[in-house]
Amino acid sequence: MHLKRIPMDTSRLRVGMYVGALDRPWTETPFVFQGFVIKDSFDIDQLQSYCSEVYVEIDRGKLTETEIRSIANDGGADERQPRRQTKSAELPNWLKRWLYRTRLGELLAARARNRTGAYVRSATVRMEAPHAKQAYKQCVNSYKRIFEEARRTGVVDIKVVIRSVKPVIESILRNPDAMAWTVFSGKRSNRHYSRAVATAVWAVMFGRHLGFDRAGLKNLAVGGLLLDIGYVSLPDEILNTMGAFYKDELLQVRKHVQAGMEVLRRSNIDEPAVLDMLKYHHERYDGSGYPHQLKGRDITPHGRIAGIVDCYDAMTTKSSYSPAQGAYAAARELNEMRDQQFHAEVVEQFLKTIGMFPTGSVVELNDGSAGLVLEQNPENSLHPKVVLLRTPSGELFDPPRTLKEDDWADSKVWIAKGHEHGAYGIDPMEHFA
I need a labelling partner for 177 at 20 to 30 A (CA). Which of 16, 57, 86, 411 fits? Predict the structure, then answer.
């Protein structure tokens, strides 16, 4: 849908307007999402502290086009949302803006974009790769034991779960690309065990990108790992099925959400973030999900995170009845789900987290040459660091050639498509480990 935008002086902003663009780069502001509905006066104060003018989308938000144009043209008062008057008991606007700029704004901006000390990449992909691989392997093996124990007893030991995910979190904090490469490069033959760990990985990576603190990342990891713990209630013939489910089997599978919540209840796990992830990870923004067909903001933020990471991992995982999509194809499909299955802001930020061409993926350039993505480019996801390994004619580059920023800048070279891991016989292990 083509969105119409009109310029709006920030002094005329109202609650309910949808801000689609600013008069400065989003990265210079504390706003995590590029495009959002103004919810309250705090949002207006922040916008006024950073911008003189913004662009309001008249096709979105809670105000009508007539209301928005009236306010933009003459500043007409909105009786339902009158201009706020400065009271003597309140801080003056100039002081609020100064505080936002010098203290709060910088803190939020740093937190949102991982510029805090804890979120600095302290290792290269090559350095971190063996640690990521070991953390991933240990977590898979630990989850196998957690799952089997839950099948026998109906409970999980939260202390064991936390110990299992801690090395994964630490690895992602040092370098998320190394863990992403590990997940994609691993041969995930057992869907339940490996998918549980992979989903935890994507959740923590997403949380890192959004600026969650360590306690928040721990909750995301625990929730991601236990998303499908309700599968313990399924009989072996369904759990180990080699094909698509029949209708009655599908109905049983969909009961795993309630079954998982029961496991958490019996295990005395009452962390709200974890509960929300399990409860809502199959709900969808347009109401097409289950078990409660919730819509929009009725799905909590942790539920939205859980939903998109679970969906992405399902897309990129091979099963007996569904081939794995390449990361680029999965990213494009998610992008098409904006404001349908998933909230547009969540899709946008998640795609920034993983990149259009994730680390370790094989890519083909417009001239037919092929290479491996070594590292993400946080400034432009379409221009990652790529080492070229095969020439357009299919021969090996000797030595391999690494694309530089200048190669992208002349617009003569671009990534034409992404491929599944292992395409062209390229083994990421040879270039990272």
Answer: 411
